[in-house]
Write a structure and sequence with these properties.
By secondary structure, this protein is mainly alpha-helical. The chain has helices at 5-8, 20-45, 50-53, 56-69, 76-99, 123-138, 145-169, 182-201, 211-228; strands at residues 106-108, 115-116, 119-120, 173-175. InterPro entries: CruF-like.
């Protein structure tokens, strides 16, 4: 049977729409990988690491912007969680600096930028990012709420253990007597656990596809740099 003109010239099927969400994720991962790789190489091999250290606050801000761009549910509960965690993290550090009773005796250097009450303003953002990432990662575990909070707090302490050698070397902060006390990790776990319980009770969507990448990237960055500069 001959084909009619109409059947011979059927329009071609439209091309599949690109996965814009996946593309955005890959772009964000690429940017973060570039910044962290540049920082790692600069700090590990440069004769003048001070040039790269001046970008530490900027790198933290960039990471936060990209990370929270992938949080779809930014309702009032999420915003309240963010503000509360930033404030708690910052003022816990203020109390820690002034009393030495939470983490031990330490002082902040100049690397993390502008300070208020002897604590860098950006440190509250760091507490927020770690609390948020660890809380989301712990949700992959088949655990009840409190045990999940414990697991997330341990993830935060694990990150702190990797950060400490690098922080001391590059003047993020300095410990009295050049000794990182066990009290620091006990204090970190206690504060982290409180924040994780709060995270679990906050009513917002706890899913972010960028979180596993950022946590692993930062873990490898600090662990690798700490191993390299030993």
């Amino acid at each position: 049977m001959p084909f009619s003109e109409s059947t011979q010239h059927l329009p071609a099927a439209p091309p599949a729409a690109p996965d814009t969400s996946l593309r955005r994720l890959r772009v964000a991962q690429g940017i973060l990988l570039l910044f962290h790789a540049t920082g790692f190489l600069g700090l590990a091999f440069s004769q003048d690491p001070s040039f790269y250290l001046q970008f530490v606050p900027l790198n933290l801000l960039l990471t936060a912007v990209l990370l929270f761009a992938f949080q779809r549910d930014r309702n009032l509960a999420f915003l309240t969680f963010c503000v509360t965690t930033v404030l708690v993290g910052f003022f816990v550090e203020v109390i820690g600096i002034q009393t030495g009773k939470i983490f031990g005796q330490y002082t902040y250097g100049t690397t993390l930028g502008i300070k208020w009450l002897n604590v860098p303003l950006i440190i509250g953002l760091n507490w927020l990012m770690l609390t948020y990432m660890a809380g989301i990662l712990a949700r992959y575990l088949p655990l009840p709420g409190f045990l999940r909070a414990v697991a997330a707090a341990l993830l935060m302490v694990g990150m702190d253990m990797c950060i400490e050698p690098v922080a001391v070397r590059y003047d993020f902060w300095t410990w009295f007597y050049d000794l990182i006390p066990l009290q620091n990790f006990k204090g970190w776990f206690a504060v982290s656990l409180i924040l994780q319980v709060y995270f679990n009770r906050s009513d917002f969507e706890k899913h972010n596809p960028l979180v596993p990448f950022v946590y692993l990237l930062q873990l490898l960055f600090f662990f690798g740099l700490g191993w390299f500069i030993r």
